[in-house]
Specification:
304 residues; mainly alpha
Length: 304
């Protein structure tokens, strides 16, 4: 097979997988120095905190000993995963909160909508290009996690679930950012609403769970037949919180503790319920983004 035929075949497959909108977004995002510096600082923060953890656990906790305790590798994995979760929560909404409203402010959205690309193609391509950069950042941290594998304590299955959880969370936050970017004309408003929603998902749901849990404890404490499992439904509130979901991946006992399960009782893991809830929300957000990206649909509805 000649080299020209191989090149033509690759270009054909590339044209099928990457539409013009996605191709343009990839080129615009990756050709700027900002992408390189974002990747550099992301790895710098993750790597710096990992080495700071090793320093604290070896020098300070072991009273001057320079030997790293292998038993602490699990704690290091938890620490890096928590930092990674925080960085995803900080960066993912910002990558998608202005993709549609930014086009509208630059007055290029109308031009984009006049192309042969469908609304679904535009929205999904914008979302995929934004999240692909975030996926690149998370994948680039794999060498940092290799330090944990040097000492053991973490199974590859557990690490794979954590990374898939990150990808799902990116899609969830990205789809919400895409929705607000479609609904609001100003990027600043879209960014504020997106970060406010993210703050509620991370902090608000956790606060509501703790508040309701405390109230139910006080209400049932004086009862002669006090049984914490009677208000185990409170755990469904915790299933909305990504921090609680991540902790349930680390330790399956978190699910039993949150739902006040007795010995022998089983139920769906907290992180699996989290994925079910936010899968519905993500699909709804993407569907609404596709529905409202073209203002002509609103006009046709009013004219009926």
């Amino acid at each position: 097979m000649s080299r020209n035929s191989i090149g033509g075949g690759l270009r054909s497959w590339r044209s099928k997988l990457i539409n013009p909108v996605l191709d343009k977004e990839f080129r615009l995002r990756m050709r700027t120095p900002r992408s390189m510096w974002s990747l550099f600082f992301y790895l710098f923060v993750i790597g710096g905190l990992a080495f700071a953890f090793i320093y604290v656990t070896t020098v300070l906790s072991n009273r001057g000993s320079s030997v790293f305790d292998p038993g602490q590798s699990r704690m290091m994995f938890y620490f890096i995963s928590a930092v990674q979760l925080g960085l995803i929560a900080f960066m993912a909404p910002g990558l998608t909160a202005g993709v549609i409203s930014g086009e509208r402010e630059k007055q290029t959205l109308s031009l984009l909508l006049t192309t042969q690309q469908s609304s679904a193609t535009i929205v999904l391509s914008k979302l995929a290009s934004s999240l692909s950069f975030m996926l690149l950042l998370v994948t680039a941290t794999m060498p940092v996690y290799s330090v944990v594998f040097l000492y053991g304590g973490i199974s590859p299955r557990q690490m794979a679930i954590v990374f898939l959880f990150y990808v799902f969370l990116m899609v969830t936050l990205g789809s919400l950012g895409m929705l607000f970017s479609t609904l609001f004309k100003r990027t600043m408003v879209s960014v504020i609403v997106t970060y406010g929603t993210t703050l509620f998902i991370f902090g608000g749901t956790g606060f509501i769970y703790l508040l309701v849990e405390q109230i139910m404890q006080e209400l049932n404490r004086g009862s002669a037949t006090y049984n914490p499992s009677s208000y185990g439904w409170v755990g469904h509130i915790a299933a909305w919180n990504p921090i609680a979901a991540l902790l349930s991946i680390f330790d399956t006992g978190i699910t039993k503790q949150v739902f006040h399960l007795n010995t022998g009782q089983k139920r769906l893991d907290l992180w699996k319920e989290f994925i079910m809830i936010y899968s519905v929300i993500s699909v709804a957000a993407i569907a609404l983004s596709i529905r409202y990206i073209r203002p002509v649909y609103k006009r046709s509805k009013r004219n009926k």
